[in-house]
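Hey,
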Amino acid sequence: MQKSLIITIGRQFGSGGHEIGEKLAKKLGIKFYDKELIKLIAKQSGLCEKVLESYDEKPTNSLLYSIVMDIYPSVMYTGPTIDQQIYQANYDTIRRLADGEPCVIVGRCADYILRDHPELVSVFVHANSDFRAARIAEEYKLPDAKVRDLLVKTDKKRANYYNFQSEKQWGAASSYNLCIESSEVGIDGAVDLIMDYINYKKKAKG
């Protein structure tokens, strides 16, 4: 069976990775998954959606787990640790998506989980701090000092999660097929570059 095109997008916080992925999926006429993935994982695994949200792209945090379990004491887990269960559920859902129809998946180690997929295009979107800060300040209506702190902390969490769950380095050019600086080319320019890469790859295969 021929495998479907899968595009994964890793991104720095505020770089526009979500918007780029959404526009790309629309242009290609395929499904888009970012936060939507949490609902899908919960539905397919039976895990509590609130727990999944608390652990989404974050490194292990036993204190956070304790707090969540205090709020939802009826949720019982046995066997593997909660981290292992969540990663396995994430892994299974992403593999299932890739075995189905073409789609764009943002974050959640999807590029690593699907590293053996023959039609994978893995992208990392980065941008300078001023570009990212301006986008986040506009979206969340936060003062500059809080925005800068949020950029650092969110990227650190994403990097720690990715580096722990994979054998690659978050944000390193060697970890992806294509790295794009959205502060240089813009959101639409980034979409066009990914489209160009997909078309060149298709031509190269004949």
